[in-house]
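User: Is it possible to get a 3D structure for a protein together with its bound compound? The compound here is zinc ion. I've pasted both below.
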Amino acid sequence: MGPIGNGNSHIHCRILQIGGNSLIALAVDLVLHLLIEYTVKDESFVQETANQLSEAYKVLADYFTLKDIVLLRVIITPDRAEFDQCVKEILKIVIEVPSNPSRIGLCQKTDLIVLSPLAWDSELYTYTPDFYRGFLYHEMTHLVEEYLSKDIEKVTRWWSEGVAVYLSGQWMFDHDLQEKVAEGIEKGLLPSIKEMEGQEREAVIRAYTWGWTIVKYIECTYGRNMVTKIVKECGDGNIFRVMAVGQKTLEKRWREWVLQAGKGVYQQHE
Ligand SMILES: [Zn+2]
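Assistant: Yes, that's possible. Here is the predicted structure of the complex:
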């Protein structure tokens, strides 16, 4: 196959037949090597997947000043059963089986398992190139976070999801997310950081909804170097130690910043 992307000659995609209906595409960039495994039915997504992940990686590598050569393996699974099996056997992550229809991608270390857009629950997701791009960008952010992190398992959800939602630009396009944030700002009801932690459903939703606003606040106030520092140095989950600021103080300043910025928090152009 020819070059992928808009005339970017650094990225090439080679497709190798490895028997049956299993194919491999290898996209090679200067710093990112992508191995994409898929079945024939998802052939049309391969180039797009390689393209979007490469683009995302470039932006993230620039953000985090990452210069290492990274090899990532992406598996586009044709259905829910294959997805669950890859999650279990390759990622070694234990999730419910069959997994929740809201799960369409999961990553661990340098592996990313994607559920084919053809197998998405149509009541939950509709494939559009923009949505797929945002989804892959979100997952790529997680991969980079884990690559840089000393111990991703210890990192609190609101931070890791916050970084992924913020840096992938998901907050600019996810209307459901924006509505929740808008409502919270309007009513002056922002959760505490403690309420974004924990495993119960409400806490998980708060972590996804509000985590990125803390990341954005930190970037706007302290600069992207602080975001990078936390991702790289926070090996024990205590981001306040890395920032040398107390949790209550940060929380108070973040609330004030959000309430003052109002719509500017979630609108693209401030
Ligand atoms: Zn995520």
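The CA atoms of residues 172 and 268 lie 6 Å apart. Residues 11-148 form a domain with the Glutaredoxin fold (CATH 3.40.30).
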